[in-house]
Write a structure and sequence with these properties.
The chain has 16 helices and 13 strands. By secondary structure, the protein is α/β, with parallel strands linked by helices. The chain has a single domain (about 10-445), classed as TIM Barrel (Alpha-Beta Barrel). α7 runs parallel beside α9 and α15 (about 375-395) packs parallel to α16. The protein binds beta-D-fucopyranose. The site of beta-D-fucopyranose has 12 residues, from loops.
Length: about 450
């Protein structure tokens, strides 16, 4: 037994990271368009103004995906490209761009998976209070409705939000991402609650305005946890640690706070007790909206913490040994997370799972032979996907895997200094060069992961 016949072997990107603004595109500003212009915020002053110029080069990029044999492609829509003010007037140029992209994908036999929000908050909405303003629930819902209306005749898979942990934590708690605020902790809980309500409203509006039955999911993140040994005690330690509540200073790095309300209809009791003094009013109606049923669960998984049960029966995070393997951006390499993560998540949430992101940053260079020999990425992928296959064999219902990323792109505050792509981008010329891993992934898709 192995991966399903219709397993969605895919790759993922996001709009701000690849599109570029585009000439006369009519796009409105989002918080990233504004934030990158502030001095000292982004590595060497890089911006996403041009990025991979995907706005003009999407045909070439879809051709690459086709040649790679991708079955699915996860991309995001820039809210401010289709609704420049976040609400009201529609930018038909923006709709036309995504229409052409969707058509090109379908023509290439690639299933489009749309993410509604990969951090592209329209700047006008931000000026109205953004996630602090509870009216955003309806604004986001209206935007979701528009997307359903315009695309669901051809697109049937949607994700609402990408990584609320990051856009609230990095955007408003430690301020390294747009809009770069260090807001009072109490406000971040209010925003988080509005975020979850907006998710629920988007699920409703997608379905209400859809032209045919659609499938809707959610794409949060969080460090996974895996046991030091496979003893029942260590496994239990990893399970408990995965759903445990972080300290206040770091509170958004949390799986259960963001997923329990969506999937189980309530916030975790441990969090209610721990964060009590900072919480906004939470009503039964809010929870009903937040838990509007979804069809599948997406999870972005990059790494995990190793856990053991200590002698007093408390989960403990095991310190990594000296010289522990790491990616170019210092993330630990922990393939076990693609086995234990989906397993624990399915146990708790009981939904089909998509790995909505996974991958690594490498110090990729074009070698003298003109090729990009990213053996580290191939090794990483082989290890992680082997672990994922083990989960599949154990009966976890995994429907797809989206590699982050299709191509190198704008890595937020690190600018272009981190390369996560299967395809190398020379930003001076916009030339795309297949890395060795892209060929490897193509072959793996071809044999549906049999050789893993
Ligand atoms: C995730 C983001 C994605 C990219 C990868 C490396 O947190 O969703 O946009 O930055 O990390």
């Amino acid at each position: 037994m192995g991966f399903r016949k219709d397993f969605a072997w895919g790759a993922a990107t996001s709009s701000y990271q690849i599109e570029g603004v585009g000439k006369k595109s009519g796009k409105g500003m989002n918080v990233w368009d504004v934030y990158v212009k502030e001095q000292g915020k982004i590595y060497e002053g890089h911006t996403g103004d041009i990025a991979c110029d995907h706005y003009h080069r999407f045909h070439e990029d879809v051709a690459i995906m086709k040649e790679m044999g991708l079955k699915a492609y996860r991309f995001s829509i820039d809210w401010s490209r289709v609704l420049p003010e976040g609400k009201g007037k529609i930018n038909e140029n923006g709709i036309a761009f995504y229409n052409q992209l969707v058509d090109a994908l379908l023509e290439a036999g690639i299933e489009p998976f749309i993410t509604l929000y990969h951090w592209e908050l329209p700047y006008s909405i931000y000026l109205k209070g953004g996630w602090m303003n509870s009216e955003i629930v309806e604004w986001f819902g209206d935007y979701a409705g528009l997307i359903a209306e315009r695309f669901s005749d051809r697109v049937t898979h949607f994700f609402t939000l990408n990584e609320p942990q990051c856009f609230i934590g990095l955007g408003y708690l430690n301020g390294v991402h747009a809009p770069g605020l260090k807001a009072p902790v109490r406000d971040t809980f209010q925003m988080a609650h509005n975020v979850l309500k907006a998710h629920g409203r988007a699920v409703q509006m997608l379905r209400i305005r859809a032209k045919q039955p659609i499938q809707v999911g959610y794409a949060p993140t969080g460090a996974m946890c895996y046991p030091e040994t496979e003893s029942p005690k260590d496994i239990e330690a990893a399970r408990q640690q995965l759903f445990a509540m972080e300290d206040l200073t770091n509170w958004t790095w949390n799986v259960a706070w963001w997923s329990d309300p969506v999937l189980l209809g309530h916030y975790p009791q441990e969090g209610i007790d721990k964060y009590e003094a900072y919480l906004p009013p939470i009503t039964p109606n809010d929870l009903k909206l937040i838990s509007e049923p979804i069809d599948f669960y997406g999870q972005n998984i990059y790494n995990g913490k190793c856990c053991r049960m200590d002698e007093d029966g408390h989960p403990q995070i095991v310190k990594r040994y000296e010289g522990f393997p790491r990616t170019a951006n210092q993330w630990p390499i922990t393939p076990e997370c693609l086995y234990w993560g989906p397993k624990f998540l399915q146990e708790r949430y009981d939904k089909p799972i998509y790995i909505t992101e996974n991958g690594m940053s490498c110090h990729d260079v074009v070698s003298l032979d003109g090729k990009v020999h990213d053996t580290f990425r191939i090794d990483f992928l082989a290890r992680y996907l082997k672990a994922l296959k083990r989960a599949v064999i154990d009966g976890v219902d995994i429907r797809g895997y989206f590699h982050w990323s299709l191509m190198d792109n704008f890595e937020w505050n690190y600018g272009y200094s981190e390369r996560f792509g299967l395809v190398y981008v020379d930003y001076r010329t916009q030339e795309r060069i297949w890395k060795d891993s892209a060929y490897w992934y193509r072959d793996l898709i071809w044999e549906n992961g049999e050789s893993l």
